Amino acid sequence: MTIPADATRFVEYSDQFLKNVAVDNVIFGYHEKELKVLLQQPYTLDKWTVTGGYIKKTESIEQAASRIAFDRTGLKDLYLKQFGSFGNPQRVIDKGFTPQRIKEITGFEIPSTSWIFDYFVSVSFYTLTEFSKVESTKGELEADSKWWPVSELPPMMFDHEHIINEALSALRVHIAHFPIGYELLPEKFTLPEIHSLYETILGKSLDDRNFTKKLLLTKIVSKLDETRKIGRHRSPFLYQFDKEKYEEGLKSGVALVF
Amino acid sequence: MTIPADATRFVEYSDQFLKNVAVDNVIFGYHEKELKVLLQQPYTLDKWTVTGGYIKKTESIEQAASRIAFDRTGLKDLYLKQFGSFGNPQRVIDKGFTPQRIKEITGFEIPSTSWIFDYFVSVSFYTLTEFSKVESTKGELEADSKWWPVSELPPMMFDHEHIINEALSALRVHIAHFPIGYELLPEKFTLPEIHSLYETILGKSLDDRNFTKKLLLTKIVSKLDETRKIGRHRSPFLYQFDKEKYEEGLKSGVALVF
DNA sequence: CAAATAGTGTCTTTTAGACATTATTAA
DNA sequence: TTAATAATGTCTAAAAGACACTATTTG
To answer: What is the interface size between A and B, counted as CB pairs within 8 Å?
Structure first.
């Protein structure tokens, strides 16, 4: 077991942070037709959590989410979407903080009436990124940090399994109304690649003819005059996002219902 | 100016509540083809706020929202829908708490580093109710409490105007996918009545023939063998919600896109 | 019979969904 | 030439949207 850095940080730096409220980021990663989620394992238990952290008094909740996501992924400008907040007295049970435990570890005596023993409201965001862009997946404070397939999650702390499920629902609703893929695909990609991406996120297969028809109708991608040679079969054409249409879609919405 | 009850409560009861996080409820009321929102005016200023309150350590955020809504409306079993959380350092500016001010009023000396001078994250819910069902619209702690048309809001505190706009957007998305009206219409109502309700909430006019066609297709309302005599013109038939279909719609969704 | 509101049907366009064959590449 | 994958079009059914006349009531 590694150092219980969370507890230490709490005690030393707690004046910088808002109390009883925190941010959780569900970081989805797409890689080779699989949807994964970045989880970390705190010092306390054999259970896992989504990436999260505390909110500084000087920053907004969105800024906190962004800072925390950067700490975990090394990526700036991630599109973080708030999808809900979670809070109930049961949330505290798994936390692993007790006055005795903190004293053992840090030497500080904290009264059991302190706010750090009350439950935290989690303001939750999700984001999508290309798996391989993430360099430092390991937070300085956690024992371990790892990508897990959303379909095979390890035992989760608190209500974090529920939070991931809610994030996934929100994501699936979201991609019916807004373009995605810019951060997930190489600059030039093939129709089969973007097709697979949508299938993976939605968790179901999509008719290739109908998929192509609808996608091209939105004009958010445009065909290039190049192909990619990738095997003993017909070479697929390359496409790229039409930056302008894509940005417009982000603002005003684009129907891509499957 | 009335008693600054919020400040008093803060000081006296703050141990019961989570810190730096609170609930706000945007309570929409429908009455005579108008959509209104219940606002309260705290002691401090000539600005108004949506109804809100603090979260007890022993209750979930949903329970807090429900309790707070009951305090303001006297209604139980309101359908409260969480639509977002809001938090940034600017939120504190309007709050009207300063150490000096609290000392003047309550006699307590609170250090300026206390959490009560930091910003609060607002976990926000909206609900819809029939205007005239609300008896005690006045909270015990506020100077005044009043329904305002959503199109003519008074000067609002914090980011509460933004919160109301977000609530309205969420409501308009919501009614495209779930049945509403059960709490807003009399048990027996006419097609023109429910038609007006949808027009009011969506803020646009809807073709009567197409509206009726789609509504009846969902089977959530059924025609009765009675009419209501209301003037020197043809008497409209009465309808009522089909409880079973309605409940099912709440769970699984019902498309009513206009 | 006039004024007011309720009630209803048809046509057109658009969208969704099902479905199968031909084209290209390189071993 | 064959195995592998890419590319593409048509038909049908359902839904959305535009649009206007007839029915009933009572002063």
So the answer is: 81
